[in-house]
Amino acid sequence: MSWLLVHFPQIVFYALAAVAVAGAVGVIAFRNPVHAALSLLGTFLAVAGLFVLMEAEFLAAVQILVYAGGVMVLFLFVIMLVKARTLPDEPQYLGRLAPAAVGLGVLLAVLVGVGVWGAAHGAPGDPAALRQVQGATLGNTEAVGWSLYRDYLLPFEVVSIVLLVAMIGAIVMGRKESPKEGGA
Amino acid sequence: MITTTHYLILSLVLFTLGVIGMAVRRNFITVLMCVELILNAANINLIAFSRQFGDLTGQVFAVFVITIAAAEAAIGLGIIVALVRLKQTTNLDQVNVMEG
Questions:
Q1: Contact indicator for A149, A158 with CB cutoff of 8 Å
Q2: What is the mean pLDDT of chain B?
Q3: What is the mean pLDDT of residues A25-32?
Q4: What is the ipTM of this complex?
Q5: Among A47, A86, B39, B75, which is 20 to 30 Å from A67 by CA?
Q6: Quick count: other Cβ atoms within 10 Å of Cβ A184?
Q7: Is B87's Cβ below 8 Å from some Cβ in A?
């Protein structure tokens, strides 16, 4: 029992990581897009659990609300709308792009190696500092809010314009060709 | 003890699966899902480093990444709806209307 308590974070991490990887494999293995989307949902929820494990509770909530709630519904809605399950999906092999793929893979491995080495040798900071704002200890949501609205106010406003443009773009692309012809 | 390296390796696996999916699947909807996988892998990295260095910036940028992912999903799925209206397919190999 005490072994279980001591190793609880590891057990949770490996369980969530296994669910996330299994979901990711399902996304590219399932032929039916509905199954792939539900598999992706498993990955999203497992990643949200990992965020909680990393003490980023606010992002875990955002992950569930935006991804599992919003993006996933959008995906399923479009899959149903275009009846994608009846459409063929033949695998396409890389062909003459294979050398480029190998080169990029090697480059990626080098970059990841540098990143892992840096993470293992970098000076670790104090995780408690994540909750310190102006000398007071806050919850994760409040601390992220302080950082977002004090240090990153301009990027926050810009990203809201990005969302507005995306919304208008989705409406423009989703409507009929021409109101005169289509009668929309 | 779960270190940053554990999270980086998990993130690498998710990223690689996303890239493989984008390369081998020809269904536009599946390719968009693979993009979401890649962005999730990036978020895991950002938050793992945020935890290691005790700096909230990583979490703030993860919020931005989630926002961009939502915008990308909306635009991508809008393109799919327009594409199906035009070509009655979501197979990327049959989408060559912009080829010269």
A1: no
A2: 87
A3: 87
A4: 0.90
A5: A86
A6: 9
A7: no
Interface touch A87/B72, C-beta < 8 Å? no
Is pLDDT at A80 greater than 90 in this prediction? no
What is the model's pTM? 0.83
Min distance B99 CA to chain A CA atoms (Å): 19
Q: Compare CB distances from B33 to A27, A126, A155 and report the shortest one's residue.
A: A27
Tell me the chain A residues in contact with residue B62 when contact means C-beta distances shorter than 8 Å. 56, 59
Q: Choosing among A82, A86, A177, A181, which should be mutated to test the B contact, i.e. which has the most B CBs within 10 A?
A: A82
Of A20 and A105, more confident: A20
Mutate which of A8, A34, A47 to test chain B, going by most B C-beta atoms within 10 A?
A47
Residues A156-160, mean pLDDT to the nearest whole number: 93
Amino acid at B24: V
In terms of phi and psi (left: phi > 0; alpha: psi -120 to 50; beta: otherwise), the region of A93 is: beta
Burial class (CB in 10 A: 0-12, 13-18, 19+), B4: buried
Q: What is the mean pLDDT of residues A50-67?
A: 92
Cα-based angle B62, B66, B71 (whole degrees, multiple of 5)? 145
What distance lies between CA B67 and its chain's CA centroid?
12
Contact criterion met (CB below 8 Å) for A26 and A39: yes
What pLDDT does B85 receive? 84
User: DSSP class of residue B91?
Assistant: B
Nearest CA in chain A to B84: A82
Whole-angstrom CA distances from A75 to A70, A126, B75 are 9, 39, 12
Non-local CB neighbours of A33 within 8 Å, separated by 6+ positions: A79, A84, A85, B27, B29, B30
